[in-house]
Amino acid sequence: MGFARTCSVALVGVEGVVVEVQADLEAGVAAFTLVGLPDKSLTESRDRVRAAIVNAGAEWPQKKLTVGLSPASVPKGGSGFDLAVAAAVLGAAERIDPRSIADLVLIGELGLDGRVRPVRGVLPAVLAAADAGYRHVVVPEQTAGEAALVPGVSVLGVRTLGQLIAVLADEPVPEEEPHEEGRPDPMLAGLLVPGAGVGTGLAADPADGPDLADVAGQHTARRALEIAAAGSHHLLLTGPPGAGKTMLAERLPGILPPLTRQESLEVTAVHSVAGILPPGEPLVRRAPYCAPHHSATMQSLVGGGNGLPRPGAVSLAHRGVLFLDEAPEFSTKVLDALRQPLESGHVVIARAAGVVRLPARFLLTLAANPCPCGRHTLLGTGCECPASLIRRYQARLSGPLLDRVDLRVEVEPVTRSDLLGHGGRGEPTATVADRVREARARAAARLDGTPWTVNSEIPGHELRTRYQAAPGALAAAERDIERGLLTARGLDRVLRVAWTVADLAGHDRPGPEDLALALELRTGITRGVPVPAGAGEWT
Q1: DSSP assignment, residue 38?
Q2: Beta strands in 233-390 (DSSP E)
Q3: Which carries the bigger pLDDT value, residue 309 or residue 64?
Q4: Stretch 359-374: mean pLDDT
Q5: Is-contact 481 497, C-beta < 8 A?
Q6: Element holding 33 (H helix, E strand)
Q7: How much is the average pLDDT of 102-129?
Q8: What is the DSSP letter of 209?
Q9: Which letter, b or e, does each residue of 283-310 get, where b requires 16 or more Cβ atoms within 10 Å of its Cβ?
Q10: At what angle do helices 488-505 and 219-231 cross, to 10 degrees?
Q11: CA–CA dist 259, 149 (Å, integer)
Q12: Whole-angstrom Cα distance, residue 245 to residue 125?
């Protein structure tokens, strides 16, 4: 008889649960039984593990073998348990010392030839192991850099099962045939999943991405874009086709500040689980950008799929930008599903297989035409859309959803002067990004010691008590509430935007002009706030 145990991690969304893998050998007819609520891919590990152990030069035990995964009540899936199952079997067979693997966490898939293949979700799995008190993990060599992002954890990256056996048995490590440079590495196939990140991209460095200076004119829209980036405020751009709505939205990630260490780990964990983390770049440092097509389903936007739900677009855009172009063309139910994550910063998905909580704190940017033909607001261009059709088209963006959007900007057609460059070139992305970083630094200093980091996260009660505007600044907002132009939620969002405007202008707290600009960007009613030719002229 022989017994050994080791550990692996089961992922539920982007959260991990440490699973104890136990192997028991006893006399009887040779058989391999796997218990503990495994899914189909995990059940198939019996054949992969047997072939990998034999091809690694070890002897397969010809006894009755039972492998248990505890806790048995937690659903377990994927091929990432292969390495732990193989180590437990070798420990029970006394090919390696069972004590050497008792406190190890092993994550990886095994090929039939004994090679260790990378799997998705290594970062959140190692984070879960570290939180449970484990300090030594074994992962595929290709994902060792990703696992090493977790502080306080010793990481061993292995390329074959034979290497692992040699290290654990204190034997000479067999030499592996080096991979020829220039040839494709099939071992990287498990890291990227085709189709998992459609419409999703990691924002490039601002120096390499699209420049805000390419946008002709649109001074009000550029100003709103800067406010959105500085305070993480949701934005709606409405205007005719060709006015530059998509150009503006595509340049928003470039003016966002780099992610903090904690934010980078959160974003990297989501992208690792989704299978869209670029090889060789284990840590995501720039805000992600996700732009799904308007035919996107509910599951692709908020998360879902067979079995336990997988991250959707709202989670893939976590700490970044979610851009919905042609927003009225999206399904109304799909759009209204955004209301809960916009408020809470996460999405809770309940399925028969379980309930998953996924992070979803994103900056929502909507772009919409004024009517189906797009010419409703243009004079003399012949919009023939009936009034009833225009109302139905605009009503696809429901009132509760729009109430959660801080900035609503009418993007006017570009004038001949701006298009031909007679109006002067706009500011480049780098200049605007510097002001955004300075404004965020002011907000972070003011919010030091609180759970919030940007103005859009401050609760309304705190805005009306601890972070008050200058005396008399709320007069116009109070009148709008009496007229029904602002809701209670709308007032809170106006105050948040006003604080961001004040941070950009260098004011200690919002004054009447800051509130007037915030109200104008919220309601669309002109308040007499001058819009400078250059978006950077805040003072």
Answers
A1: B
A2: 235-238, 288-290, 321-324, 346-351, 354-359, 363-368
A3: 64
A4: 93
A5: no
A6: strand 31-35
A7: 94
A8: S
A9: bbbbbbbbbbeeebeeebbbbbeeebbb
A10: 100
A11: 15
A12: 40
Pairing of strands 15-26, 64-70: antiparallel
Write down the H helix ranges in 403-428: 416-419
Taking the CA atoms of the chain, what radius of gyration do you get in angstroms? 28
Provide the residue count of the chain: 539
Query: Does 372 have pLDDT greater than 70?
Result: yes
Select from 317, 232, 305 the least CA-distant residue to 271: 317
Sheet holding 288-290, edge to edge: 200-202, 288-290, 321-324, 363-368, 235-238, 407-410
Residue 284 or residue 190, greater confidence? 284
Cα separation, 27 vs 2, in Å, equals: 10
Report pLDDT for 307.
66
252 pLDDT band, cuts 50/70/90, is very high
Instruction: Count Cβ atoms below 10 Å from residue 235 Cβ, excluding itself.
Output: 26
| Residue type present at position 223 | R
Q: How far apart, in whole angstroms, are the C-alpha atoms of residue 477 and residue 493?
A: 11
**Residues paired with 22 in a beta bridge:** 5, 68
* Among 124, 135, 82, 114, residue whose Cα is nearest residue 277: 124
Measured distance CA(93)–CA(530) in Å, rounded: 79
Query: What pLDDT does 196 receive?
Result: 47
pLDDT, tens only, 4-48 = 999 999 998 888 999 999 999 999 899 999 999 898 889 999 999
Mean of per-residue pLDDT scores for the chain: 88
CB atoms within 10 A of CB 441: 12
For 381-418, the pLDDT digits (tens) are 678 888 899 899 989 999 899 999 999 999 988 877 77
* This prediction's pTM: 0.88
Residue of 183, 122, 181 lying closest to 156 (CA atoms)? 122
Report yes or no: 503 and 470 within 8 Å, Cβ to Cβ.
Answer: no
Burial class (CB in 10 A: 0-12, 13-18, 19+), 313: buried
Dihedral sign (CA 156, 161, 166, 172): negative
